[in-house]
Each structure stands twice: as C-alpha cells, then as structure tokens.
Specification:
Mean pLDDT: 82
Strand content: 15-25%
Radius of gyration: 17 Å
Largest sheet: 3 strands, antiparallel
Shape: elongated
Helix content: 10-25%
Number of helices: 2
Distance between the termini: 24 Å
Number of strands: 5
Order of helices and strands: EEHEEEH
Strand order of the largest sheet: 3-4-5
Length: about 110
C-alpha cells in the first residue's frame, strides 16, 4: 500500500519498528511515509475519533476502531476505492509488470 499523500511505496523493512505510520482517511486504512510525516499538519488529513478526537484509528472488517479510547463504529461503504492516492505514482500492477520485465530481461510490456 502506498503513502496516501505522495504515493511512495514501502521497501523491505529493516529490523525494528517501522517508521511508517497507519491512519484512517475516508474510512479507509492508509499509510503515511516518514517524509510526509515531517510535514507539520499531516494528521489534519486523517479521520478523527468521534468520541475523543484522536487520529489513532484502525480500519478492519468494515469497522473503524479508535486505539486511544476503544470506540468502534461501522465504516461507511466506499464508492471508488482509488480516490485516496492522487499522485502520478504508478499503480502496483504497473510496478509488478516493470519488475517482472527487469527480472526476466524482457522488453517493455504493452
């Protein structure tokens, strides 16, 4: 899953805790890369808990749960799942196709 702000993708993790953060935006789980976390207002773009106002939310199995106070609510259905990443970054399928072409020494696909 890419960073919802810039479209950067995670590389293989190094031992220890990941520098990437999780959040919820428009009732969808998103990741925030370390570079975007350096922006002063990056949490302003995330959903907040209706009970305590925290941005420490997780989305799973159609529910959004606050990790701060434990409040759980039903997630709203999504109409178009690709709306969150608006950067010009290639999608996962394009990245996989390019990687396979490099590994298998083929010319460009398409």
């Amino acid at each position: 899953m890419p960073c919802f702000r810039c479209g950067a993708r995670q590389s293989d993790p190094v031992r220890g805790a990941s520098p990437w953060k999780r959040g919820v935006r428009a009732d969808r789980q998103v990741l925030i890369c370390p570079g975007c976390q350096s922006s002063p207002n990056w949490t302003a773009e995330l959903d907040r808990c209706a009970e305590c106002g925290s941005t420490a939310l997780i989305c799973r199995l159609g529910e959004v749960e606050c990790r701060s106070c434990g409040y759980v609510r039903e997630a709203r259905p999504q109409e178009r799942p690709g709306d969150l990443v608006t950067s010009g970054a290639p999608g996962l399928s394009e990245e996989v196709a390019a990687a396979l072409s490099r590994v298998l020494k083929r010319g460009p696909i398409g």
